[in-house]
Amino acid sequence: MIKSYRTAKMHLILVLLCLLLPSTAFSETDWVLVLDRSESMTQNDPHNCRFDAQKIMVDLLAQGVDEAHRLTIIRFAGAAEAVLERELIRPQNVEAIRKLISVDPPMGDTDIAAALSLARRIVDPERRASDVHVILMSDGVLAGKTPNLAGKLDDEKKACQSLGLPVHAVLLNDYSVSKPEREERRRQKLYYEDKQLQAGEDLLRDMARKTGGQFAQVVPERGVEDILIELISPHMSFHRESISTRLVTWPTDRQLYCVLDRTAREVKIRMGAKEVDVNLDRQQSIEGDFQLSVTPYRNRTVVLVQPAENVRWPDWIEFLPGRAGNSPTGSVFVISNVRLEAIPGLGDDSAAATEGVKTKIREHEVYPIRFSIHVPADITPERARSIQDTLKKSSVRIELSDGEGRNLDDKSLSASDVAAGVGNRLYFIPTSSPRGEAKVQEPFTLRLKARLEPADGSAGVRVGRRPFCRAPDRSFMVVPSAFDWFVRRNWKGEPESSSRPAARRDVDVELGEELRLEVTYTGQEPLGEAEMAATFGMAGEAAARKLLLKDSGGVPRRFSTDWIFPTIPGTYEAKMSVKSGGVQETAFTIRVLRDDFRPPGSQYSKDGVNSMEGKDLGTYFQGERVQFSRQRTLHRLTTQATSSYWEAESSAPAKASLLRKDPASAGWTIVRHVPLTNEAPVLGTPEIAVSYKGELSDVEPG
């Protein structure tokens, strides 16, 4: 049974929907490293930099305040083996995890599908794929005795795609080593042929593209450490920026995690009036008002900077060249005492979630994100007061982009409201097609970013401001719905067979056309007790006209309103919503335009039904001159649009058609076209009037 319901109930429905969505104060993120251990990987990474990169990744994941990151490590050749399963990363167990990340003896075969299948079984990404990140590190060359390796991998790719589970692919091959090493290997024939290398690259690129992941290739100038850091950074709450001479600090900062390139052997760090010379080649701890911990790796050195309990940050920290004069380069991650969280739903922050975040969303689905701000309990009262004062002058900046990184939407919320849990702290994901089509043809990706930053115009904001912290990025895959939505239009009085549906959500109609709102259901499952509603009204007006969507049956099953006839030009808004396993809602912007010279049909018909309203010239003598006039009204909603429209229209000469009525058939036929002249209209308003004149002579009798 289909129900129609009042739009006023939508607020209640939205609340109920959101309450059903899982909520948790701190989301749990799974990281899965899927590592190729075949012989070629040893050749492609002869200095084992990939193992250092994994250790840096684990160190970085352990720095989060009130963040839950779990790590799974899967190694594979002909078979897949999990050496670590969903281990919760904490500072106290980092050393134990690091010991598991060690040089692994190479093996011959390469079965990527087996490794990805094992990954899915361990982390169980159903309904929480946005909180599961799979990083595949391989050369992409399938080899071994297992039959149909390519077919198995294609099936696994489809499974990940169906779940909305992104697989990030990191390519290590012959081009990952330096040019001298590569040339030496080629002389010794210690490499795959170029054709195989290209096939491996194509395979990994396709895997990343089809699952919504990222692809990156390790090259000498962009190491595996850089790539892993770039992959995990968006999914953490840390602000990241490149090392420069001066880093602005905030009262909200907890510690700095610096990943420095080994291009410099030493660095001088200036913290207020204090300077510390740091040797980047030696593991060490440096005590003082600011505690420094130094951990060197082959290509990078990690320096952790943390103030003592009652020590305030200076306005900035400077990274200066050491005694050798080389400027430090790399990245600094600012770990904040404030955590910004983006949580689907409207539930209680303290509620534990039994399952993670939904990733796949249907087109036009009403899908809310709730923001919250948390401060850890282990800070001093003085720091807590300073943080609260900072939040009063802050805002939460939200940005939404598509899979290509193009910005689609941005919005700001009051940080004080978000922190207090009052006021507006919701953001609804726009799940319609970003290109404006009424129907999503294929799945597309949306990425949500949010950061806590000084509000515009905040007093006391220092030069070079940066965010206090950021929320982990969230990715969503919007999939086509079983419902299709249309605005059907037709010239009033014409048969319904001549009507045409609009393919976009921005619809232009001419005054004299009528329209109808339609929903069709193309799903295979029974529709059940779906509830539907529709409204139509002038844009910006609170009182929209409520419409009934009637079941018209048919295949596909169709629901439609009665025909609507707008009587004046203007911008209108039409909305349709369906509640069926959630709420889907779409809105159409309808611009009703006016041009009195627009014929209500594409062709004149013999019976005159499709002809525009004419002017009866009356009875005249043969050869008499017949003069006539006509006023044309144009309204394209804005002054600029009307002026541009008239400029285009006036370039083509206007003509009137002389029609003769056949007494026998009562039909009309065109006798000739008569040129028209017009006076220059007065521009400067959305609606203008143009006066036309014409003259006839030598009209034959009849």
Number of helices: 12
C-alpha end-to-end distance: 61 Å
Poorly predicted sequence stretches spanning 5 or more consecutive residues: 1-25, 348-356, 459-463, 601-612
CATH top level assignment of the largest domain = Alpha Beta
Q: What is the CATH topology of the largest domain? A: Rossmann fold
CATH superfamily label of the largest domain: von Willebrand factor, type A domain
DSSP strand tally = 40
Q: What fraction of the residues are assigned to beta strands by DSSP?
A: 35-45%
Helix content: 10-25%
Number of domains: 5
Written overview of the protein:
The protein is of the alpha+beta class and 702 residues long. The protein has five domains: 26-235, von Willebrand factor, type A domain (Rossmann fold, 3-Layer(aba) Sandwich), CATH 3.40.50; 239-336; 338-479, Immunoglobulin-like; 483-594, Immunoglobulin-like, CATH 2.60.40; 597-696, no CATH class. The chain contains twelve helices and 40 strands. The strands form eight sheets. Strands 1, 28, 30, 31, 34, 35, 36, 39 and 40 form a nine-stranded mixed beta sheet that branches. A six-stranded mixed beta sheet has the order 4-3-2-5-6-7, sandwiched between helices. A six-stranded antiparallel beta sheet has the order 8-17-10-15-14-13, with no helix packed on it.
Protein traits:
5 domains; nine-stranded mixed beta sheet; 702 residues; six-stranded mixed beta sheet; 12 helices; 38% strand; Rossmann fold; Immunoglobulin-like; alpha+beta; elongated
Topology overview:
Layout: E1 3-4, H1 10-20, E2 28-36, H2 39-44, H3 49-61, E3 68-76, E4 80-88, H4 94-100, H5 112-123, E5 132-138, H6 149-163, E6 167-171, H7 179-187, H8 194-211, E7 215-217, H9 224-232, E8 239-242, E9 246-248, E10 253-261, E11 266-271, E12 274-279, E13 284-286, E14 290-296, E15 300-307, E16 316-321, E17 330-336, E18 339-344, E19 360-362, E20 367-374, H10 381-391, E21 394-402, E22 407-414, H11 415-420, E23 426-429, E24 444-454, E25 469-479, E26 483-491, E27 500-501, E28 506-510, E29 513-521, E30 531-538, E31 545-547, E32 550-553, E33 557-560, E34 570-579, E35 583-595, E36 626-635, H12 639-650, E37 655-661, E38 668-675, E39 677-678, E40 687-696
Parallel strand pairs: 1-30, 2-3, 2-5, 5-6, 6-7, 19-25, 28-35
Antiparallel strand pairs: 3-4, 8-17, 9-16, 10-15, 10-17, 11-12, 11-16, 13-14, 14-15, 18-20, 20-23, 21-22, 21-24, 24-25, 26-27, 26-29, 29-33, 30-31, 30-34, 32-33, 34-35, 35-36, 36-40, 37-38, 39-40
Helix pairs in contact: 3-9, 5-6
